[in-house]
Each structure stands twice: as structure tokens, then as C-alpha cells.
Description:
The protein is built from 7 helices and 10 strands. By secondary structure, it is α/β, with parallel strands linked by helices. The strands form 2 sheets. Strands 6-7-8-3-9-10 form a 6-stranded mixed β-sheet, sandwiched between helices. Residues 3-217 form the ABC transporter domain. It holds the Pfam family ABC_tran.
Amino acid sequence: MLIEANQIEKSFGTGEARRTVLSGVSLSLASGETLALTGESGSGKSTLLNIFGALEPADGGNLRIAGTDLAGLGDTARARLRRDRIGLVFQQFNLVPSLTVAGNLSLQARLAGRQDKGWEQHLAGQLGLTDHLSRYPDQLSGGQQQRVAIGRALASRPALVLADEPTGNLDEETADRVMTLLTDLAAESGSGLVMATHSERHAARLARRAHLKLGRLR
Ligand SMILES: Nc1ncnc2c1ncn2[C@@H]1O[C@H](COP(=O)(O)OP(=O)(O)OP(=O)(O)O)[C@@H](O)[C@H]1O
């Protein structure tokens, strides 16, 4: 199993201001499976993705990602898990401004010791980036930057790709193209995919759906 989440709890704030965001969330995802995470704004989609991505700890419950129990993992072990097993794609592309497209694409795979130049070239070709490899992020359009972010997430062939509204900043036509690339390339890479989205159309393209409401999955 890629994700085994049992009774995940998460609250923010203290005292009067304490607010429960996730309440007894259980979910499992098998290798290579795709799942759309939906729910209205503020329902906790990003919070759950951050917990799955070992970016933020849960307050309660059990969580195993790619076989690793997250309970009690220190910062270094969490960072290693992310580097080795997880690809992250966010709405803000989070590219490294001082690195070229080629440098951004290979960054995580190099850090994970899993650089595969042939796969990188294939990704760059599929993502329409071959002619832009020596450019810097600020010389690219939003759609191009998002394609670099997808390539970077997939370059290490991570077991799990977590995408948070990955097409939120793009016009509809570009968003559709980026979605197709993300789902096709994740399938080619053998990666499982969890994607938070507000788009019914994009959610419908993934095999499974989980809907967050009042802190619970429905
Ligand atoms: N670090 C934080 N500190 C305090 N509250 C937070 C924090 N992160 C998230 N929240 C709150 O948790 C709730 C869930 O936020 P989250 O971003 O997970 O929702 P979402 O479903 O991803 O929303 P959207 O669709 O608008 O991105 C919100 O009420 C938000 O204000």
C-alpha cells in the first residue's frame, strides 16, 4: 500500500480558537492508483496532502506512506522520505529561480541518487520543454513553469505524487493539457497520484474520488 491512513486527526489553534480540520480520516491507496480529493474551500484538502507528504504532522491517528510509519520520524527522516518516495506539485510552482529548467527538472532525482537522463529527456519532450532547458523559471509562462514542476516531481519516478490544485493558476485550455500530462506521465512512471482539485472535470479523470466535508471523508 502506498497510503494507509487510519483515523487521522488535525486541529489548528488553541483554546477558544481551536478548530478541528480533520476528524477521523481514513484512506488507503494502492500502488499506481489515482485519487481526486475534493471538498469545498477550507475543507482540509491541503492539510491532508501536507500530512501525506510528511510536511506537517497529524495530531492523532496512524499513517504509513510507502510502507514507512510516520509516527516518531524526525525531521531528517521525513525529508528523506519526501526526497526518495514523494513528488510534490503545488499551485505555486516552487521552482528554484537560480537553476535552469534542466537543473530544476533533475534536482530531486539527483538528490535522491536516482537521476535517469533518458527518462528526463522523455519527460522534457512530453512536457514540451526540450527547447527551454537552458532558460530560467522567470523566463517561462505560468503553464510552462507548471510543466517543469510536474517534470521535477516525476523525474525520480516517486512512488507517490501529491498535487495540490496543480492547474489552479492556469487558463482552462492550458489546465486541461497540464492535467493530461500529469495523469499520463504519472501512469507511465508507475506513480500513485492524489490530487486536490475544485474541478469536477479534472476529478472525473482520476480513478477514485474522496470528498472532504466537516472534517470527514464521504
Ligand atoms: N497553519 C495553519 N494554521 C491555522 N489554520 C490553518 C493552517 N493551515 C490551514 N488552516 C485552516 O484549516 C482549514 C483547512 O485549510 P486547507 O488549506 O487544508 O483547506 P483546503 O480544502 O485545501 O482549501 P482550499 O480549497 O481553499 O485550498 C482552513 O480553515 C484553514 O484556515
